[in-house]
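For this section, I looked closely at a protein sequence along with its fold in C-alpha coordinate form, which I now present.
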Amino acid sequence: MTDKLTVSVLGTGIMGAAMARNLVRAGHTVRAWNRTRAKAEPLATDGAHIAGTPSEAVEGADVVLTMLYDGPAALDVMREAAPALRRGAAWVQSTTAGIEAIGELAAFAREHGLVFFDAPVLGTRQPAEAGQLVVLAAGPSEHRAVVTPVFDAVGSRTVWTGEDGADGAATRLKLVANSWVIAATAAVGEVLALAQALDVEPQSFFDTIAGGPLDMGYLHAKAGLILNGQLSPAQFAVATAAKDARLIVRAGERNGVRLDVAAASAERLERAAAQGHAEEDMAAAYFASFDATGGPSA
Protein backbone atom coordinates (compact mmCIF):
# COMPACT_ATOMS: atom_id res chain seq x y z
CA MET A 1 0.00 0.00 0.00
CA THR A 2 1.31 3.47 -0.91
CA ASP A 3 1.63 5.93 1.93
CA LYS A 4 0.21 8.69 -0.29
CA LEU A 5 -3.50 8.82 0.40
CA THR A 6 -6.67 10.59 -0.61
CA VAL A 7 -7.81 12.33 2.56
CA SER A 8 -11.12 14.10 3.04
CA VAL A 9 -10.99 16.90 5.62
CA LEU A 10 -14.44 17.90 6.83
CA GLY A 11 -14.24 21.13 8.80
CA THR A 12 -11.62 23.76 7.96
CA GLY A 13 -11.65 26.07 10.94
CA ILE A 14 -8.50 26.98 12.87
CA MET A 15 -7.38 23.38 13.31
CA GLY A 16 -8.86 21.69 10.27
CA ALA A 17 -7.37 24.14 7.79
CA ALA A 18 -3.90 23.77 9.29
CA MET A 19 -4.18 19.99 9.26
CA ALA A 20 -5.33 20.03 5.62
CA ARG A 21 -2.35 22.17 4.60
CA ASN A 22 0.09 19.83 6.28
CA LEU A 23 -1.52 16.84 4.60
CA VAL A 24 -1.05 18.52 1.22
CA ARG A 25 2.58 19.31 2.05
CA ALA A 26 3.12 15.65 2.92
CA GLY A 27 2.05 14.72 -0.60
CA HIS A 28 -1.46 13.48 0.07
CA THR A 29 -4.44 14.31 -2.10
CA VAL A 30 -6.74 16.45 0.04
CA ARG A 31 -10.42 17.07 -0.56
CA ALA A 32 -11.63 19.77 1.86
CA TRP A 33 -15.11 20.89 2.81
CA ASN A 34 -16.50 23.47 5.21
CA ARG A 35 -20.08 24.54 5.87
CA THR A 36 -19.01 28.12 5.17
CA ARG A 37 -17.19 27.55 1.90
CA ALA A 38 -15.21 30.81 2.17
CA LYS A 39 -13.25 29.29 5.05
CA ALA A 40 -12.15 26.40 2.86
CA GLU A 41 -11.38 28.33 -0.34
CA PRO A 42 -7.89 29.55 0.71
CA LEU A 43 -6.79 25.90 0.83
CA ALA A 44 -7.13 25.74 -2.96
CA THR A 45 -3.94 27.79 -3.31
CA ASP A 46 -2.15 25.14 -1.24
CA GLY A 47 -3.29 22.40 -3.61
CA ALA A 48 -6.41 21.08 -1.93
CA HIS A 49 -9.58 20.36 -3.87
CA ILE A 50 -12.50 22.32 -2.38
CA ALA A 51 -15.69 20.28 -2.35
CA GLY A 52 -19.17 21.74 -2.44
CA THR A 53 -20.74 19.05 -0.25
CA PRO A 54 -19.59 16.49 2.32
CA SER A 55 -20.59 13.75 -0.09
CA GLU A 56 -18.37 15.19 -2.82
CA ALA A 57 -15.50 15.55 -0.36
CA VAL A 58 -15.48 11.92 0.76
CA GLU A 59 -15.87 10.33 -2.65
CA GLY A 60 -12.94 7.96 -3.17
CA ALA A 61 -11.28 8.91 0.12
CA ASP A 62 -8.98 6.45 1.87
CA VAL A 63 -9.29 8.45 5.09
CA VAL A 64 -12.02 10.83 6.24
CA LEU A 65 -10.88 13.32 8.90
CA THR A 66 -13.51 15.27 10.81
CA MET A 67 -12.57 18.43 12.72
CA LEU A 68 -15.91 20.04 13.46
CA TYR A 69 -17.48 21.97 16.34
CA ASP A 70 -18.85 19.10 18.40
CA GLY A 71 -20.19 15.55 18.26
CA PRO A 72 -23.65 16.37 16.88
CA ALA A 73 -22.07 18.50 14.15
CA ALA A 74 -19.72 15.65 13.20
CA LEU A 75 -22.61 13.19 13.04
CA ASP A 76 -24.76 15.53 10.94
CA VAL A 77 -21.96 16.09 8.43
CA MET A 78 -21.15 12.39 8.17
CA ARG A 79 -24.83 11.67 7.53
CA GLU A 80 -24.65 14.14 4.64
CA ALA A 81 -21.54 12.36 3.38
CA ALA A 82 -23.02 8.87 3.80
CA PRO A 83 -24.04 8.22 0.16
CA ALA A 84 -20.43 8.52 -1.02
CA LEU A 85 -18.58 6.87 1.88
CA ARG A 86 -16.48 3.90 0.82
CA ARG A 87 -16.89 0.83 3.00
CA GLY A 88 -13.55 -0.01 4.56
CA ALA A 89 -12.35 3.60 4.58
CA ALA A 90 -10.81 4.89 7.81
CA TRP A 91 -12.60 7.61 9.75
CA VAL A 92 -10.26 9.75 11.86
CA GLN A 93 -12.61 11.57 14.23
CA SER A 94 -10.63 14.51 15.67
CA THR A 95 -13.51 16.69 16.86
CA THR A 96 -13.58 17.17 20.64
CA ALA A 97 -16.93 15.44 20.78
CA GLY A 98 -17.42 14.44 24.41
CA ILE A 99 -17.96 11.01 25.88
CA GLU A 100 -21.65 10.62 25.06
CA ALA A 101 -21.17 11.48 21.39
CA ILE A 102 -18.34 9.02 20.75
CA GLY A 103 -20.69 6.04 21.07
CA GLU A 104 -23.06 7.53 18.50
CA LEU A 105 -20.23 8.30 16.09
CA ALA A 106 -18.77 4.81 16.45
CA ALA A 107 -22.20 3.31 15.81
CA PHE A 108 -22.47 5.31 12.59
CA ALA A 109 -19.05 4.01 11.56
CA ARG A 110 -20.12 0.41 12.13
CA GLU A 111 -23.35 0.94 10.20
CA HIS A 112 -21.43 2.24 7.19
CA GLY A 113 -18.49 -0.16 7.32
CA LEU A 114 -15.91 2.46 8.33
CA VAL A 115 -12.83 1.75 10.44
CA PHE A 116 -13.29 4.15 13.35
CA PHE A 117 -10.42 5.99 15.02
CA ASP A 118 -11.14 8.24 18.00
CA ALA A 119 -8.33 10.75 17.47
CA PRO A 120 -8.63 14.18 19.13
CA VAL A 121 -5.50 16.33 19.14
CA LEU A 122 -3.66 18.45 21.68
CA GLY A 123 -2.43 21.80 20.47
CA THR A 124 -3.63 25.16 19.20
CA ARG A 125 -3.18 27.20 16.02
CA GLN A 126 0.64 27.47 16.04
CA PRO A 127 1.45 23.77 16.61
CA ALA A 128 -1.31 22.84 14.17
CA GLU A 129 0.23 25.04 11.48
CA ALA A 130 3.68 23.60 12.24
CA GLY A 131 2.45 20.00 12.11
CA GLN A 132 3.38 19.60 15.78
CA LEU A 133 0.09 18.47 17.30
CA VAL A 134 -0.05 15.54 19.70
CA VAL A 135 -2.54 13.00 18.38
CA LEU A 136 -4.43 11.03 21.01
CA ALA A 137 -5.68 7.95 19.21
CA ALA A 138 -7.62 4.76 19.75
CA GLY A 139 -8.34 2.24 17.04
CA PRO A 140 -7.56 -1.25 15.75
CA SER A 141 -3.86 -2.02 15.38
CA GLU A 142 -4.42 -3.99 12.17
CA HIS A 143 -5.60 -0.81 10.43
CA ARG A 144 -3.20 1.72 11.96
CA ALA A 145 -0.83 1.62 8.97
CA VAL A 146 -3.51 3.40 6.94
CA VAL A 147 -3.85 6.36 9.30
CA THR A 148 -0.22 6.62 10.46
CA PRO A 149 0.79 8.81 7.45
CA VAL A 150 -2.07 11.16 8.34
CA PHE A 151 -1.03 11.38 11.98
CA ASP A 152 2.61 11.88 10.96
CA ALA A 153 1.64 14.78 8.68
CA VAL A 154 -0.34 16.69 11.32
CA GLY A 155 1.46 15.77 14.54
CA SER A 156 4.82 15.43 16.22
CA ARG A 157 3.79 12.21 17.98
CA THR A 158 0.86 9.88 18.45
CA VAL A 159 -0.25 8.57 21.84
CA TRP A 160 -2.18 5.33 21.38
CA THR A 161 -4.74 4.78 24.12
CA GLY A 162 -6.41 1.55 23.03
CA GLU A 163 -7.64 -0.79 20.32
CA ASP A 164 -11.27 0.29 20.25
CA GLY A 165 -12.14 3.83 19.24
CA ALA A 166 -15.69 3.28 20.44
CA ASP A 167 -14.70 3.10 24.11
CA GLY A 168 -13.70 6.78 24.11
CA ALA A 169 -10.28 6.33 25.74
CA ALA A 170 -8.68 8.99 23.55
CA THR A 171 -11.54 11.41 24.09
CA ARG A 172 -11.40 10.85 27.85
CA LEU A 173 -7.69 11.68 27.86
CA LYS A 174 -8.39 14.78 25.77
CA LEU A 175 -10.99 16.00 28.27
CA VAL A 176 -8.56 15.52 31.15
CA ALA A 177 -5.87 17.48 29.30
CA ASN A 178 -8.28 20.24 28.31
CA SER A 179 -9.49 20.56 31.89
CA TRP A 180 -5.96 21.60 32.83
CA VAL A 181 -5.63 23.99 29.86
CA ILE A 182 -8.95 25.69 30.65
CA ALA A 183 -8.24 25.98 34.38
CA ALA A 184 -4.77 27.41 33.75
CA THR A 185 -6.11 29.94 31.26
CA ALA A 186 -8.83 31.07 33.67
CA ALA A 187 -6.20 31.52 36.37
CA VAL A 188 -4.05 33.67 34.08
CA GLY A 189 -6.98 35.97 33.36
CA GLU A 190 -7.95 36.28 36.99
CA VAL A 191 -4.44 37.04 38.24
CA LEU A 192 -4.09 39.84 35.67
CA ALA A 193 -7.53 41.21 36.50
CA LEU A 194 -6.75 41.21 40.22
CA ALA A 195 -3.40 42.87 39.57
CA GLN A 196 -5.18 45.63 37.66
CA ALA A 197 -7.78 46.08 40.40
CA LEU A 198 -5.10 46.27 43.12
CA ASP A 199 -2.77 48.50 41.07
CA VAL A 200 -0.04 45.87 40.93
CA GLU A 201 2.24 45.77 37.89
CA PRO A 202 1.96 42.31 36.29
CA GLN A 203 5.73 42.26 35.84
CA SER A 204 6.14 42.47 39.62
CA PHE A 205 4.17 39.23 39.90
CA PHE A 206 6.17 37.58 37.12
CA ASP A 207 9.45 38.61 38.77
CA THR A 208 8.28 37.28 42.14
CA ILE A 209 7.62 33.75 40.84
CA ALA A 210 10.43 33.69 38.25
CA GLY A 211 12.38 30.44 38.17
CA GLY A 212 10.31 28.77 40.88
CA PRO A 213 7.72 25.99 40.77
CA LEU A 214 4.88 28.50 40.27
CA ASP A 215 6.46 29.85 37.09
CA MET A 216 5.34 28.33 33.80
CA GLY A 217 5.67 29.07 30.11
CA TYR A 218 1.92 28.88 29.57
CA LEU A 219 1.35 31.73 32.04
CA HIS A 220 3.67 34.01 30.09
CA ALA A 221 2.23 32.97 26.71
CA LYS A 222 -1.40 33.66 27.62
CA ALA A 223 -0.60 36.75 29.70
CA GLY A 224 1.33 38.14 26.75
CA LEU A 225 -1.69 37.79 24.48
CA ILE A 226 -3.80 39.78 26.96
CA LEU A 227 -1.26 42.45 27.84
CA ASN A 228 -0.19 43.01 24.22
CA GLY A 229 -3.70 42.96 22.77
CA GLN A 230 -2.94 39.96 20.55
CA LEU A 231 -6.14 37.98 21.09
CA SER A 232 -6.89 37.70 17.36
CA PRO A 233 -6.44 35.52 15.45
CA ALA A 234 -7.31 33.03 18.16
CA GLN A 235 -5.07 30.12 19.05
CA PHE A 236 -8.10 28.46 20.68
CA ALA A 237 -11.32 30.48 20.57
CA VAL A 238 -13.41 31.46 23.58
CA ALA A 239 -16.57 29.86 22.16
CA THR A 240 -14.86 26.54 21.50
CA ALA A 241 -13.23 26.53 24.93
CA ALA A 242 -16.63 27.18 26.54
CA LYS A 243 -18.07 24.19 24.69
CA ASP A 244 -15.18 21.99 25.83
CA ALA A 245 -15.55 23.19 29.42
CA ARG A 246 -19.20 22.11 29.41
CA LEU A 247 -18.21 18.69 28.02
CA ILE A 248 -15.71 18.34 30.87
CA VAL A 249 -18.31 19.29 33.48
CA ARG A 250 -20.79 16.76 32.05
CA ALA A 251 -18.13 14.05 31.97
CA GLY A 252 -17.45 14.66 35.65
CA GLU A 253 -21.14 14.60 36.52
CA ARG A 254 -21.63 11.31 34.66
CA ASN A 255 -18.89 9.78 36.75
CA GLY A 256 -19.76 11.20 40.15
CA VAL A 257 -17.18 14.00 40.21
CA ARG A 258 -18.01 17.64 40.88
CA LEU A 259 -15.69 19.90 38.86
CA ASP A 260 -16.16 23.35 40.36
CA VAL A 261 -13.22 24.96 38.54
CA ALA A 262 -14.35 23.66 35.15
CA ALA A 263 -17.91 24.83 35.82
CA ALA A 264 -16.74 28.29 36.86
CA SER A 265 -14.43 28.45 33.84
CA ALA A 266 -17.33 27.58 31.53
CA GLU A 267 -19.33 30.45 33.02
CA ARG A 268 -16.41 32.87 32.60
CA LEU A 269 -15.90 31.85 28.98
CA GLU A 270 -19.61 32.15 28.23
CA ARG A 271 -19.68 35.60 29.85
CA ALA A 272 -16.71 36.71 27.76
CA ALA A 273 -18.42 35.39 24.63
CA ALA A 274 -21.56 37.38 25.50
CA GLN A 275 -19.36 40.49 25.81
CA GLY A 276 -18.28 40.04 22.20
CA HIS A 277 -15.09 37.98 22.59
CA ALA A 278 -16.38 34.63 21.27
CA GLU A 279 -13.96 34.44 18.33
CA GLU A 280 -10.94 35.76 20.21
CA ASP A 281 -8.37 33.60 21.94
CA MET A 282 -9.61 31.85 25.06
CA ALA A 283 -7.34 34.13 27.09
CA ALA A 284 -10.02 36.77 26.45
CA ALA A 285 -11.95 35.18 29.33
CA TYR A 286 -9.90 37.80 31.20
CA PHE A 287 -12.61 40.31 30.26
CA ALA A 288 -15.24 38.33 32.14
CA SER A 289 -13.75 39.77 35.34
CA PHE A 290 -14.97 43.23 34.34
CA ASP A 291 -18.26 44.89 33.59
CA ALA A 292 -19.34 45.97 30.12
CA THR A 293 -17.29 49.18 30.34
CA GLY A 294 -14.04 47.21 30.69
CA GLY A 295 -13.42 48.41 34.24
CA PRO A 296 -13.37 46.39 37.48
CA SER A 297 -16.78 44.88 38.27
CA ALA A 298 -18.67 46.29 41.21
Observations:
- The chain has a mean pLDDT of 96.
- The longest strand covers residues 155-162.
- The chain has twelve helices and nine strands.
- Residues 6-167 form a domain with the Rossmann fold fold (CATH 3.40.50.720).
